[in-house]
Amino acid sequence: MSHETRNDKMKSKYIKYNFSEKYHREDHDSMIKEAKRCLQCSIPSCRKGCPVEVDIPKFIKYIANNKPYEAITILKQKNNFPAVCGRVCCQETQCEKFCILSKRNQSIKIGNLERYVADITLQTNNIRQHKREPKQTGKIAVVGSGPSGLSCATDILKYGYDVVLYESLHALGGVLRYGVPEFRLPKKILDVEINNLKRYGLKTILNTLIGRTKTIKDLFDENYKAIFIGIGAGLPILLGIEGENLKHIYCANEFLVRINLMNANKFPKISDTPVYIGKDVVVIGGGNTAIDSARTALRLGADNVKLIYRRTEHDMPSRKQEKEYAKEEGIEFITS
């Protein structure tokens, strides 16, 4: 057996059944050094690339001065879940892409800095939650506990209103819980963020499907002043090709929900939900969900995983880092 083949087998053995978070951890000194590379532009283009317009130079400046708790305070002015966003947000196509240093391919690692400072806050339990404004009359209902529902609930809480969050499933988090694998977003991180919201005043009601368990009229009859509906886009878009309804073919939604929410990878010891994994697995698509599915299949015991995409690898909408991880783990890309 060649040295390369032996290494591949060892790597494959390590990957299988290992759902631990995977990313290149940055130490304290390297993060301080990275923060000090920021030019502190007077007109920060990076902030224009951020969907919620976080004051990026300011939070980075605090990190450079070794003031992580001041940095997290700046982040939380606009971003309610920095520990989550630092892991799953597409920084390289947003804030990092607009960084002035990206012209020399040396963009500040904004996502890494965000994750680093958020993790310090979580580890020390120094939450630095914003103070709520004086209590307002009336209560607000939020339907759906995914990213939009959680963000909306947090912002409304800041204004002093009582908020009740309704979730149809038995656990909060929406796509953050059932769509993103453990190796990319550990559930303990998500749980800490959600528990902090509960400490902040959020009330939650699980196992309640609005539209069936209760109607919108029922909610208004319960004296809710307003209702926010953030139920996501859970239905898959199928290809419409022959054979797509055969056995052992999953849409990504079902596959990832079985694993991430129902613990099908622990069937039958812990979970009652099975999932079928063959020796050879093919994933069709090139987004983050496709990459997540491919990497999950590998961890569930597949010997070979191929990812098929209709265009070039450069055209894949998935994150560059996730593609690199997938290749490191032995997933084969088939593109045009």
Report how far apart the termini are. Answer: 33 Å
Radius of gyration: 22 Å
* Count of distinct strands: 7
Biggest beta sheet attributes: 4 strands, parallel
Strand order in the sheet with the most strands: 3-2-1-4
Structural class: alpha/beta
Produce the secondary structure layout.
Blueprint: H1 3-15, H2 28-36, H3 45-48, H4 56-64, H5 68-76, H6 82-88, H7 95-98, H8 110-124, E1 139-143, H9 147-158, E2 162-166, H10 175-178, H11 187-200, E3 203-205, H12 216-221, E4 224-229, H13 252-260, E5 280-284, H14 288-299, E6 304-308, H15 320-328, E7 332-334
Parallel strand pairs: 1-2, 1-4, 2-3, 5-6, 6-7
Helix pairs in contact: 2-4, 4-5, 5-8, 6-8, 13-14
Task: Describe this protein's structure.
With 336 residues, this protein is an alpha/beta fold. The chain is built from 15 helices and seven strands. It has helices at 3-15, 28-36, 45-48, 56-64, 68-76, 82-88, 95-98, 110-124, 147-158, 175-178, 187-200, 216-221, 252-260, 288-299, 320-328; strands at residues 139-143, 162-166, 203-205, 224-229, 280-284, 304-308, 332-334. The strands form two sheets. A four-stranded parallel β-sheet has the order 3-2-1-4. The chain has a three-stranded parallel β-sheet with strand order 5-6-7, covered by helices on one side. Strand 1, helix 9 and strand 2 (162-166) form a beta-alpha-beta unit. Helix 4 (56-64) packs antiparallel against helix 5 (68-76), helix 5 crosses helix 8 and helix 13 (252-260) packs across helix 14. The longest helix is centred in the middle third of the chain and has 15 residues, at 110-124. The radius of gyration is 22 Å and the shape is globular. It starts with a helix and ends with a strand. The relative contact order is 0.10.
